[in-house]
């Protein structure tokens, strides 16, 4: 019964979030992107959260995130890309899959970094933030789709000592790049042994993970990450 209640609450929250996102999915990304341009902001790295790799091809959401990261890299807005995501729902590390696509599209391997611990969007940001620290990066952006960006804005604002700027993709801009089709050999991203998170964790634990319950924060009291 408890699991059904949690699932129902999660669905309700998602419906509310989607309703708001539908209204702003064009305006907010454009406003944020134009703000970056007007202030001539650049970043040491862009964090790109993963998405499951199913049926041997990239999903439209993964494709959008990767293509937008490449677009920002080509403009010099981000100088490096941190792809994040482990083998969560399929036996392919999401970060590695995205990196394979990015390299096929011309991003030098030297400017791609991988984070493969994360199993939830909050963890994508936290563990990528740690990668940024290890690499000496001082400025970072979150590069993702408008919906995930909207859902994550409170989390990134409250939990990190260094500000994380959101640059969600603009749907109309990506449509110009959408015909791009790339074939990769996913073998380098294949992980064994593998067990889906759906088999390892119940809905309640997954919901807690989505909220960041299992993140090993440096500041245990305030549950925050220190500045880069």
UniProtKB/TrEMBL annotation:
Keywords: Membrane, Transmembrane, Transmembrane helix. Residues 60-171 form the DUF218 domain. It comes from Niabella drilacis (strain DSM 25811 / CCM 8410 / CCUG 62505 / LMG 26954 / E90). This is Uncharacterized SAM-binding protein YcdF, DUF218 family. Pfam families: DUF218. GO terms for cellular component: plasma membrane. The chain crosses the membrane at residues 6-25. PANTHER family: DUF218 DOMAIN-CONTAINING PROTEIN (PTHR30336:SF20), INNER MEMBRANE PROTEIN, PROBABLE PERMEASE (PTHR30336).
């Amino acid at each position: 019964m408890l699991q059904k209640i949690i699932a129902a609450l999660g669905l309700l929250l998602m419906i509310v979030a989607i309703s708001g996102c539908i209204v702003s999915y064009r305006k907010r990304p454009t406003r944020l992107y134009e703000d970056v341009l007007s202030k001539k902001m650049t970043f040491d790295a862009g964090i790109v959260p993963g998405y499951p790799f199913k049926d041997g091809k990239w999903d439209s959401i993964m494709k959008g995130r990767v293509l937008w990261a490449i677009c920002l890299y080509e403009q010099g807005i981000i100088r490096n890309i941190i792809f994040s995501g482990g083998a969560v729902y399929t036996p392919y590390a999401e970060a590695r899959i995205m990196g394979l696509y990015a390299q096929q599209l011309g991003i030098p391997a030297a400017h791609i970094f991988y984070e493969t611990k994360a199993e939830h969007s909050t963890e994508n940001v936290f563990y990528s933030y740690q990668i940024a620290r290890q690499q000496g990066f001082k400025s970072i952006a979150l590069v993702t789709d408008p919906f995930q960006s909207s859902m994550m804005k409170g989390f990134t604002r409250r939990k990190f000592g260094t500000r994380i700027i959101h640059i969600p993709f603009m749907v109309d801009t990506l449509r110009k790049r959408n015909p791009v089709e790339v074939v990769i050999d996913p073998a380098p991203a294949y992980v064994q042994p593998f067990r889906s998170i759906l088999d390892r964790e119940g809905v309640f634990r997954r919901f807690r993970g989505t909220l960041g319950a299992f993140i090993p924060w440096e500041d245990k009291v305030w549950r925050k990450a220190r500045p880069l």
